[in-house]
Amino acid sequence: AMPAWLTAALLCAARADAANMNGEYKIANAIGKYSTEYDAEYFDVYSPAIKTRYSEVYWTMMDAVQLPEEIIKRFDDKVMAIVGYEADQVYRTTNGDVSVPIYYQYNHHYGAFVLGKYSEMIEDPTAYPSHGAYGAGKGRWYTKAIDSDPFQNLTIPAAQYFSEGNGGEYRKSYHGYPKGHAQLIHSPTHFQLQPMQIDTHNRDYNGTGFKPGPLPRTAQSPPDADYSGLLECPCSTRRKKVIKVNYETLNSGTCPVTISSAEECFEGAISVSKTPPVSNSTISSLDFPFGCVLLTAGGNAKAIMNTQKASEVACGGGSNITHTSGAAASVVTLHLDLQDDSGVIITMQGPANAWFGVGFNAQQMSDEPYSIIVQGGRLPVMEVKLGDHDPGHNLSNSLKVISDKTEGSNRTIQLWRPLKGATAEHYTFDLSTTAIEFIAAVGSSPGFAYHKDKGASVIHLSPSGNQTVASCVCDGGSSGSIDGIPFRKRCGPEPKSDLLKEHNRICDIRTYSGGLECCHHQWFLLDADQEIPPQVEEYHLKFRIWFKDYDPNTIVNLPRLYWQTENAAGEYDVPKCDPGTPSNECVHTITSRFTVNDLLNRDCSIRSDVACSGNGTSVKFIYAGGHCHAATCISMDLYNMDTGKLICSQTPIQGQSTEVFDEKGYIAIPPCIWGDEDELEDPPVLSVNTTLLSIKRCNSTYGHYGEMASWQMRGVVLP
Q1: 14: pLDDT confidence band, cut at 50, 70 and 90?
Q2: Which of 135, 293, 549, 714 is the Cys-Cys partner for 558 at CB 3.0 to 4.6 Å?
Q3: 42 and 9 in contact (C-beta within 8 Å)?
Q4: Taking every pair of C-alpha atoms in the chain, what is the biggest distance, in angstroms?
Q5: E strand or H helix at 71, and its extent?
Q6: Is residue 470 predicted with pLDDT exceeding 80?
Q7: Best CA proximity match to 101, nearest among 705, 539, 532
Q8: Is 709 helix (H, G, I), strand (E, B) or coil?
Q9: How far apart are CA 111 and CA 128, in angstroms?
């Protein structure tokens, strides 16, 4: 059994000769010899034991660990100022801690929390897993202040979150702040960790340094690589992929992705048409758009595959569409009828004894959509702007009830409203829109409250009445699941993301071959015909928390600022460069243009939500830590596009040996830090309207799955 003294958090008072746990660190933008030695007190905390076999993924929220009793008592109803932290992965022995090489156990990323006595960690098992502050496995975790919090009006956080430089680079990437800045927490009591670890320790090799172990067939690392191809989460034959191709109609321009076969055209036409096409045919004509066409006339539909590539006819055939309609079913049945001269008729069917509702232009609650809530009994129909896992706020009424009928256990209500939304928060219906994503939910009580069931779907809108319209049927991407977990990659358009423009493989389940979606908790990454070695390795993650007593006159809180260059996709593929390309030219680049405001998480409670930045008109940058993976990362740069000035440039330090913290093939990423010290640049202060440009460069000599390009930042949000 492990001695009791090894299982507790340890408190160590600061001494004049106290040294960093992981040694000295580098700063990307220091203008002098900036000391990274922490001038503070610290305590050490260890995660519960992690036990894995070769190729196994460990990605879950671990049990909370109580902080040292002295810390809990000292800061009871008081504020701790956390000025930084260090992290490592260790074997715990009676002779002390022994660091685990990163090529044995690869840290893909982590989210670490210090919780206060007035906060709690909540899991919503119905939420879709998301990468970042809250993502793990099949559920979603978030912090909130307890309902009985006696300090609910206090602007000091009840919990804190740590994620900067949180991948394979984490042990030698600096996580400290300049003088006068800290992450503040009220009444700290517990530490809780959500790591994503991948076991890459080749059990058949006992020599010095790294030697690759068995890999699945989809791994892209070369045979002599000094890193394990497992760290990129290749999809193995153990994973069952279910694919559904999605189709959409278009009445202007051309299809972004054109359907190329008659068989697929006829299948797609059936899926998007209100009524089955009465016929299908293949033609070569300059009178119709190229590709798959759904010809509607007098209420009938025909599917046509036009193979004439020289056709210059646009989708819709130039028709002025005045009337569209469509229907779709989720947990609520929805029918829409749009007419340019009379508005939109919205028909919804749900349970007779409880509330039901739909949210438009959304696939999840975090999209914060305009929603219509039909309450039970005599309660009114509501128009609501939903929040992120929050009931949101009511909007002004723009609806008129046309009819309201109950038959058995079903209630059908027909509503009318103008096409144009009454405010910017009301959804505006557009006759040129051919498909609207929507979420739906039903409750267990008459009044609007937490849902009993929910779903998401798409309603396709087709020309109605006596119009003759040649709509294009386009390849709208795909959906599906991997081992029963829904596949959802929200690849965004330019200028915030390049992924859709370059047709990055990560965006479509048909081409998805590796990454987070194939890397869930306790999944093995070897193929089904490859034996999993039986040896189990046990170790812990160790965090050293550096802190000071809080002085409100000298220390300012640093809320989190966050952006992904891959813009909400959470990851992306680095395609292998073309054969014959000189190695120094094998560089893959993605960019993102966004504003300072996009870094903020507004309209939330700093007290309750660890991701909340608060509202403001400008931001003072203090810390910027990039996150990318070892095998491919070249650089990350952040520019002020309004002035052309470089804000932060980060170049990873490549490991050169077999020594811990300097493992060949792995990296550290020096952050950018700004402060009042002579050795630091002055903090940039930027309006929330400032346009930023992120540029991420990767080595593409070989292909790579699941690369990341996050900006994990801290700053002061100014009023």
Answers
A1: very low
A2: 714
A3: no
A4: 87
A5: helix 69-74
A6: yes
A7: 539
A8: coil
A9: 17
Mean residue pLDDT across the chain: 92
Collapsing DSSP to helix, strand or coil, 35 comes out as coil
What's residue 126's pLDDT? Answer: 63
Smallest CA-to-CA distance from 100 within 525, 537, 526, 656 is with 537
**Contact (Cβ atoms closer than 8 angstroms) between residue 700 and residue 577:** yes
CA atoms within 13 A on the CB side of 81: 21
pLDDT tens digit sequence for 314-324:
998 877 889 98
Burial of 180 (0-12, 13-18, 19+ CB in 10 A): middle
**Whose structure tokens read 């490859």?**
530
- Nearest Cα residue to 71 out of 543, 542, 544, 547: 547
Q: What is the pLDDT of residues 386-441, one digit of tens each?
A: 987 778 999 999 999 999 999 999 999 999 999 999 999 999 999 988 889 999 99
CA distance 5 to 602: 43
In the chain, % helix, strand, coil (3-state, to 5) comes to 5, 45, 50
CA distance 253 to 472: 9
Straight-line distance from the first to the last Cα atom of the chain, in angstroms, rounded to the nearest whole number: 55
Element (H, E) at 264: helix 262-272
**In whole angstroms, what is the distance from residue 421 CA to residue 400 CA?**
14
Residue 19 in tokens:
């040294």
- The residue to which tokens 């540029």 are assigned: 695
The whole-angstrom separation of Cα 460 and Cα 273 is 8
Asked if 351 contacts 479 with a C-beta cutoff of 8 angstroms, the reply is: no
CA distance linking residue 465 with residue 296, whole number of Å: 9
Question: What b/e readout covers 281-306, taking b as 16+ CB neighbours within 10 angstroms?
Answer: eeeeeeebbbbbbbbbeeeebbbbbb
C-alpha separations of 685 from 297, 468, 675 in Å:
59, 56, 12
Q: What is the pLDDT of residues 73-107, one digit of tens each?
A: 999 999 999 999 999 999 999 999 999 999 999 99
Residue 143 near residue 606, CB atoms below 8 Å:
no
Q: What is the pTM of this model?
A: 0.84
Of 208, 274, 231, give the one whose Cα is nearest residue 109. Answer: 231
In Å, what is the CA distance from 431 to each residue of 19, 298, 336, 463, 719? Answer: 66, 18, 11, 9, 41
Q: Is 230 helix (H, G, I), strand (E, B) or coil?
A: helix
Per DSSP, the residues of 628-682 read --TTTEEEEEEEETTTTEEEEEE-PEEP-BSSTTSBTT-EE-PPEEB-SSTTSBP
Give the pLDDT confidence score for residue 391 in this predicted structure.
87
> pLDDT, tens digit, for every residue of 153-180?
999 999 999 999 899 999 999 999 999 9
Quick one: which H or E segment has residue 334? strand 333-339
Number of C-beta neighbours around residue 329 at 10 A: 13
Rounded CA gap, 454 and 638, in Å? Answer: 40
Q: Using alpha carbons, select from 620, 640, 633, 639 the residue that is nearest to residue 680.
A: 620
**How would you classify the pairing of strands 291-297 and 279-283?**
unpaired
CA atoms within 13 A on the CB side of 375: 13
Mean pLDDT value across residues 644-668: 94
Residue 7 CA to residue 293 CA, distance in Å, equals 67
Count of alpha carbons within 13 Å of 113, Cβ hemisphere only?
33
Burial class (CB in 10 A: 0-12, 13-18, 19+), 64: middle
Q: How many CB atoms lie within 10 A of CB 92?
A: 18
Say if residue 489 is exposed, middle or buried (CB neighbours under 10 Å; 0-12, 13-18, 19+): buried
Residues, the chain, total?
Answer: 719
